[in-house]
Amino acid sequence: MDLHPGETIIYEGHPSWRSILAYYIKGLVGALILATLGYFLDGIGLGIGFFLLVLALVLLAGFIRRFATVYTITTERLRIKHGIIARHIQQTDIERVQNVNTKQSVLERMLEVGTVDFDTAGSGDSDFSFAGVEDPEEVVAAVDRAQKRPVASPG
After folding, report:
1. Can you give the pTM of this predicted structure?
2. Are 29 and 23 in contact (CB under 8 A)?
3. Domain segments of the chain: what residues?
4. Hey, which CATH number is domain 8-150, 2.60.40, 1.10.10, 1.10.287, 2.30.29?
5. What angle do CA 36, 42, 46 make, to 5 degrees?
6. pLDDT in tens, 37-67
7. Alpha-carbon span 138 to 148, nearest angstrom
8. Which own/partner pairs from 118-125 qualify as long-range (CB within 8 Å, at least 24 positions apart)?
9. CA–CA distance, 142 with 118 (Å, rounded to integer)
């Protein structure tokens, strides 16, 4: 991320691995089903091979999915970057942020993850949120610090 002169990073993070736990569980179940199918087709060797292959693919895809998403709060902007090869970047000026809300389901509270939604002034972009972050209150505090930071006067 190219920072403007005088701009500093206050918070930078990725979605927590706990936020995609359901994805990992589904992958494990899929690996077990495919392993069972492989076992009945050709024995234990094929079953174990299928299980390890699917499990490795699920773990790799989950890792890439998490680390290909970067949430950044600077003294001037909020920024969300998705993707490795194809990229989608969403950003807004910190002064445009009017409301910051957190959402956590019961399961998310137990896993200590949540979503932080940002309402921005004059923006038609209604889906500006940091999803699956560890400690959403820390993100809210980082936005608060960025908004209360004194603005340097030019010259």
Report:
1. 0.82
2. no
3. 8-150
4. 2.30.29
5. 65
6. 999 999 999 999 999 999 999 999 999 989 9
7. 15
8. 118/78, 118/92, 118/143, 120/92, 120/96, 121/96, 121/97, 122/96, 123/92, 123/96, 125/90, 125/92
9. 13
